[in-house]
Design goal:
heterodimer, A: 127 residues, mainly alpha, 88% helix, 0% strand, B: 64 residues, 86% helix
Chain lengths: 127, 64
């Protein structure tokens, strides 16, 4: 964790150096730092996903729902990653568009779950 | 894939801005424009593979 903090601080200092005249290099440095920090935090994410897989074997959750859950997490991460980078450099309109489409895709993916809930409610009521 | 990448980008940025200053002083403005363009493209070529690999990992991990 300390390494990540150090990398972040060093990158911010370097990126601020280019804030004056060469804007594009500060964009590159911040993008490279985001990727680097993800690579460092990747191991922790792997552990969480493995435990989720093990949990499934104990609790009989339908595999498709867990799949949808993982997809939603993935989409959220990608959307957040790109939207925050766009917002970081003043292009909030693009980042808002990315977030909007991210929310739409999450909604689209979770449609089957909604149908399943309605079906179970129907079953209860119709008995 | 260590901090070397960030330092390399910073080094390219500094070098390009120095070369630009020199070229601007000596009057060759179009050359200055080309060098800054080449610096941008060079760093882009460094970063793009990592970005593509990042999204590949996410796609594989979350089964997107």
């Amino acid at each position: 964790m300390i390494k990540i903090a150090l990398v972040g601080i060093i990158a911010v200092i370097l990126s601020n150096f280019f804030k004056g005249n060469k804007e594009e290099y500060s964009i590159y440095i911040s993008l490279a730092t985001c990727i680097l920090v993800f690579y460092m935090g990747f191991g922790k994410l792997e552990i969480i996903l493995d435990t989720i897989g093990k949990l499934q074997s104990y609790i009989k959750i339908n595999h498709s729902y867990m799949n949808i859950l993982l997809k939603i997490i993935g989409i959220t991460y990608v959307t957040e990653f790109s939207a925050s980078i766009c917002k970081d450099f003043g292009y909030s309109s693009i980042s808002n568009q990315i977030e909007l489409v991210g929310k739409l895709s999450i909604l689209a993916i979770s449609m089957p779950v909604l149908l399943a809930v309605l079906e179970t409610i129907n079953n209860f009521l119709s008995i | 894939m260590t901090i070397l990448l960030i330092i390399k980008i910073a080094a390219v940025g500094i070098l390009i801005s120095i070369v630009n200053q020199i070229l601007k002083q000596s009057g060759k403005d179009d050359m200055a424009y080309f060098t800054s363009l080449s610096g941008i493209i060079l760093v882009l070529l460094w970063i793009l593979p990592y970005l593509a690999e990042l999204f590949e990992i996410i796609k594989k991990m979350f089964e997107l």
